[in-house]
Amino acid sequence: MTVNLGSAYWLGLLVSVILPVLVGLVTTRVTHAGVKAVLLLALSGLNGFLVEYAGPHDAGYSVQTAAVLALVSFAVSVLTHFGLLKPTGISGKAQDTFVTAGRHS
Q1: What is the mean pLDDT of residues 59-68?
Q2: What is 11-28 written as a DSSP string?
Q3: Cα(57)–Cα(60) distance, rounded to whole angstroms?
Q4: What is the mean pLDDT of residues 90-101?
Q5: Which of 18, 48, 50, 103 has the fewest CB atoms in 10 Å of its CB?
Q6: How many CB atoms lie within 10 A of CB 20?
Q7: 3-state helix vs strand vs coil in the chain, percent to 5
Q8: Cβ atoms within 10 A of the Cβ of 19, count?
Q9: Residue (of 8, 44, 9, 4) closest to 23 by Cα position
């Protein structure tokens, strides 16, 4: 069995790794964890459906494949957040990026 993944799938995997940082950029430290999780799930779903749309496939667009790609994207994002980004502090730094100057004075 030969596995042939197009560049769209690799790009989708890369986006999955970056999604937790994106969620950190648009939320604050006091944002409820459930809100962050739903936002991450929505972005992962969008990523999965866009990858299936852009990916090379002979049989046409498949909603089932897009759903599987969305789940894989969400799983990779969560694992990246808890396994790599959170222990290194990258998530916290992303959330501090857009802190206003008034907060520090």
Answers
A1: 86
A2: HHHHHHHHHHHHHHHHS-
A3: 6
A4: 70
A5: 103
A6: 25
A7: 75, 0, 25
A8: 24
A9: 44
Q: Do residues 91 and 21 lie in contact, with contact meaning Cβ atoms separated by under 8 Å?
A: yes
**3-state class (DSSP) for residue 70:** helix
Which residue is associated with the tokens 């790009």?
11
- Residue 90 predicted with pLDDT over 70: yes
Report the predicted TM-score, pTM, of the whole model to 2 decimal places. Answer: 0.78
- Rounded Cα distance between 49 and 43, Å, is 10
Question: Buried (b) or exposed (e) across 39-70, using 16+ Cβ within 10 A?
Answer: bbbebbbebbbbbbeebeeeeeeeeebbeebb
Neighbouring residues of 60: CB distance < 8 A, sequence distance ≥ 6: none
CA 91 – CA 24 distance, rounded (Å): 6
Structure tokens at 92: 């916290």
pLDDT tops 70 at residue 35: yes
**What's the pLDDT score for residue 4?**
63
